[in-house]
Design a protein that fits this description.
seven-stranded parallel sheet; alpha/beta; Rossmann fold; globular
Length: 438
């Protein structure tokens, strides 16, 4: 299939897609949409930036078009669960864009804002509700959201949704949904243990996988700089002198680290703002909007933003600190090279992060190009640490070889047998030693 019209979508949706500049469906869209329009449950795996939102939003809108009835107060016909506030807001915007000529009622429920406007919105009933699990569960507990009539459930970024901190509220939400619902799980990665949990929620699902799990975007040029831990700030400033870095996201592991890096860049004259979980919702929206409109050159973020920032024109992603999990690396660098563009991902790796780098290379099945920018002392220390290990192995090999075998590779000559008496006295000790060595 090469056109959206081949997928059987209604003209009103095709018109919206054309208005938004969509010409041909991506692989995940062309493969998933036919299954979803048949009402099948689905597990979809595709790397970030390949159009997963449209893959589930368009069939849901088509379903609403086929049955244009008014939603009951305090209910939603379709429920989409997302891991972050930013991602929830962006998914809702996508539903509004694709449905701009049919005008579905779309709402967002997230934490960090007042309950009252959300309650007023729910009281009118919704065609589509996009929510983060914690706040949605609050409304369910107070009876302000009644999920029993929800027809479609979507878990976006399913691996993250079912991971630490999300599995309990998700199970509580799913337990209240109708058994005959349609369930869709979409993600860029799906570790085996998480896939097992997902399987419990799907009925005879179709499986669509358009790229190997944990594959990084093909159009992202990746580079690693080995640096001393104390030199990362200076290296980051050096990178920012490159005029080609017009819009960049810098990732840190901690919220405090994000604030420190953003402040360091700002003081140096590089416009930067931080975005993380300790910021209020209004602060996060303001920072994201400034970045999207080009008022801010650099957005410094924790991994909460790796799955919630969909901004066109991000030229570079910089891993100021490598993530603790290699899957997070895939999501981070997927913030660039979106919508057919190309991008660059630069990682700063100190000696303590070398195991994290090896884990990333193992999971992504590639060897990343490395440039060593460490001081000579650090390189010398690394060589001196490696030298004793190599010398020890050589000594062991030499000790196990006779002079002749070391010289020409011949077998060592057998030793002369020890006197019988001495041999008998030492026999118990020899057997014990052999056992210890074995």
């Amino acid at each position: 299939m090469t056109k959206f019209s081949d997928l059987g979508l209604a003209e009103i949706l095709l018109r919206a897609l054309s208005h938004e500049g969509y010409e041909t469906p991506t692989s995940i869209q062309s493969q998933a949409i036919p299954f979803l329009m048949q009402g099948r449950d689905l597990l979809g795996i595709a790397q970030t930036g390949t159009g997963k939102t449209a893959a589930f939003a368009l069939p849901i809108l088509e379903r609403l078009l086929q049955d244009r009835r008014r939603p009951v107060p305090f209910t939603a016909r379709a429920l989409v669960l997302a891991p972050t506030r930013e991602l929830a807001a962006q998914i809702a915007d996508s539903f509004r864009a694709y449905g701009q000529f049919m005008r579905p009622s779309v709402g967002v429920i997230v934490g960090g804002v007042s309950h009252r406007p959300q309650i007023d919105m729910l009281s009118r009933g919704l065609d589509v509700l996009v929510a983060t699990p914690g706040r949605l569960l609050d409304h369910m507990t107070t009876g302000r959201f009644k999920p029993a009539t929800t027809e479609v459930l979507v878990l976006d970024e399913a691996d993250h949704m079912l991971d630490l901190g999300f599995i309990v509220p998700i199970r509580q939400i799913v337990a209240k949904l109708a058994k005959n619902r349609q369930t869709l799980l979409f993600s860029a990665t799906m570790p085996k243990e998480i896939a097992g949990l997902a399987a419990d929620m799907l009925r005879d699902p179709a499986h669509v996988s358009v790229t190997p799990v944990a594959t990084t975007a093909e159009r992202v040029a990746q580079q690693v700089f080995l640096v001393d831990g104390g030199a990362k700030r200076e290296m980051l400033l050096e990178l920012m002198q490159d005029s080609e870095i017009s819009r960049a996201i810098v990732f840190t592991r901690t919220k405090r680290g994000a604030d420190r890096v953003a402040q360091h860049l700002d003081v140096a004259g590089v416009g930067a703002e931080a975005i993380h979980g300790n910021k209020s919702q209004s602060q996060r929206q303001r920072a994201l909007e400034g970045f999207r409109k080009g008022r801010t050159r650099v957005l410094v973020a924790t991994d909460i933003a790796a799955r919630g920032i969909d901004v066109d024109g991000v030229t570079h992603v910089v891993n100021y600190e490598l993530p603790d999990t290699p899957e997070a690396y895939v999501h981070r660098i997927g913030r660039t090279a979106r919508a057919g563009a190309s991008g660059q991902a630069i990682s700063l790796c100190d000696n303590g992060e070398r195991p994290l780098l090896r884990a990333i290379e193992k999971v992504t099945r590639q060897t990343l190009p490395v440039t060593d920018r460490r001081l000579q002392d650090s390189r010398a220390n690394e060589r001196s640490e490696e030298a004793p290990r190599g010398a020890k192995k050589q000594a062991l090999r030499s000790r196990n070889a006779s002079p002749r075998s070391r010289r020409d590779g011949a077998r060592p000559e057998p030793k002369s047998p020890a006197p019988a008496g001495r041999n008998m006295k030492r026999a118990p000790k020899s057997r014990g030693t052999d056992r210890a060595r074995g």
